[in-house]
Amino acid sequence: MSYQFLQVEQHDQVAYVWLNRPELHNAFNTTVIEELHTCFKQLATRDDIRVVVLAGRGKSFSAGADLNWMKQAGQASAEENEADALKLAKMLEALATLNQPTIARVHGIAFGGGMGLASACDICIASTDAKFATSEVRLGLAPSTISPYVIRAIGARQASRYFLTAERISAHEAKQIGLAHEIADAEDLDKKVQEIVDALLLGGPHAQAASKQLIQMVSNQSMNDELLRQTAQHIAQVRQGSEAKEGLTAFLSKQAPAWTLNSNNNN
């Protein structure tokens, strides 16, 4: 499928989704949001895609919302505003709930919705020149739709500072507060992303999807009998799958499991 503001490339079992509005630092508008949502929904159906990397063309990952788009939204009715915001919320949900592991490859600025995209991905790899911010309050707004993912990434205590001050967060600070998992010099950014991709391809795809579901199920729950029951049911279901049987058999026989052989054959 062709897009106006996205470029989607497949390299073996990895899909690279490039935001492609470089002249505006990959800022969001309605079309960008709709195209991202469509793209993520399509990738969710692709068994041949093991990893999704989200990146930005040009000087920046994403500057967040297009100011002209926000100005138009401010002039719309309450119902139109809510419907418009819900499109953004559903796009972020589609990214956050992909079965495949997702990596944000962040360089330049990742402000507002751009920081939301980085937070909604499972793993964030940032260039040392990257800058993050929830800049909404300086525009008289709030980081509403991105908040579940940013708070999940940095915690409520750090969000209390950055949501209210809109300070810019350096790559090193982003790693310290849990937003970025790894940082690398600009010339080494793709190498670092590839290292994480290679590590992900060693895992079973169904096991990784189950692990993502497990994180969502367990996060912020108190330890109680119901949680113990849920986690026991979860592993029981995973154990019964063909992938688990393949993985255990391969381990005991000191062989590579089928999913890594498939990956190596494609490289």
Commentary on this structure:
With 267 residues, the chain is α/β, with parallel strands linked by helices. Helices cover 51% and strands 15% of the residues. The chain has eleven helices and nine strands. The chain has a six-stranded mixed sheet with strand order 1-2-3-4-6-9, with helices on both faces. It starts with 5 loop residues before the first strand and ends with a helix.
Oligomer: single chain
What kind of sheet is the major sheet? 6 strands, mixed
Q: Measured on Cα atoms, how large is the radius of gyration?
A: 19 Å
Spatial gap, N to C terminus: 24 Å
Unreliable stretches (pLDDT < 50, length at least 5) are none
Mean pLDDT: 91
State the secondary-structure class.
Answer: alpha/beta
Globally, the shape reads: globular
Strands of the largest sheet, in order across it?
1-2-3-4-6-9
Percent strand equals 5-15%
User: Count of DSSP E strands?
Assistant: 9
